[in-house]
Amino acid sequence: MTDAFDLNYLFINQLAFTFNKYISSSSSNIPKSSISNTAKQCLDYMKQYEIIHPIAETLIDYLSKEDRLQSDYSTQWIESTRLMNNSYLEQAREEIKQVLETSMQSLHTNKAEKLFSKIRRAIAITIVQTSYEVGLSLLNNYVAVVDISTQPKTKEQLVSNKTISRKYETKTNVTSNSFKTLDQIYSKALNYYQKNELLFGQYDNETRYFWAIKLFNLSLLFKQFKLCEFYDQFIGFFLIEKEPLNFLVDDLQMLLSNLLVIFGITTIFLKPFNELTLMKLDKDDALIDLFTDVPESLEFQLYNSVMIPLAKCQFKQVIVQLQNETFVAELAAQLEYNLPVPLEIQWH
């Protein structure tokens, strides 16, 4: 993994979740092509980032039975890559251990940056492996050996601090059922950004990590059923500031799709039906274009088959869509981990 900003390895975990929901669904109407495509995309990401998720063998077994397995995906590939991942983690642990045992003072900036580059790769491995405690331990040990200023005086010091990057890595490794820890991480990142805003560049990595934290926090608001807060922040990010929208389109397409669907659901809860077309809200049609850009996407189905019919009081059409097992199963598979309650409870 290079120092270039790239968080798409996170979608290995989402695709693994989606695949599991598909194959465990009671609906028999889910197209096999959707399941196969999800499995293949998940393996493609594993291949790209050279990190193996625990579901890899299951994906290969499924694709093999469906006669969709590519020749370069095999159990041998899984075993060799997993061995490489575990070896890398062991090297990272040993390197930090040596620094902790031998250094009487904080690491020099250049050495700290090289070490953090290794830690970032190790953290990506632990996230995909779902070994979150290992990732948090690596981060905590890294913090113990570097000199970090809460108020850097120069842009170079801000970049070398990696404060926002570390907050992001911590946030993605926390899996506690309590939202308190995640809220604290978000508050600390926000406070650090506000104190040092003049040092942040528009497109530098620390700024991108900051937006990533804010956007993933949007999902967290929805999961806590803080619908009004989610709605207001979404509008602020995408229709007023607009920087986050450009960031999502360029760097986190899958998260964009999730947030659009969540926003659609939130708008149905909060707004009169005649506002569900979003035309009054979005005078430039930028948001509507995102909903309708990909006809096979979940956000397109939600907008055209639920929101627009509700706006026109075509309630029978809405009922038909919400009773469509394929639609509900896809909604659950792609989004349920972001929902306050399981989707089956909501519709039945």
From TrEMBL:
It comes from the Eukaryota. This is Uncharacterized protein. It comes from Candida albicans. The lineage of its organism: Eukaryota, Fungi, Dikarya, Ascomycota, Saccharomycotina.
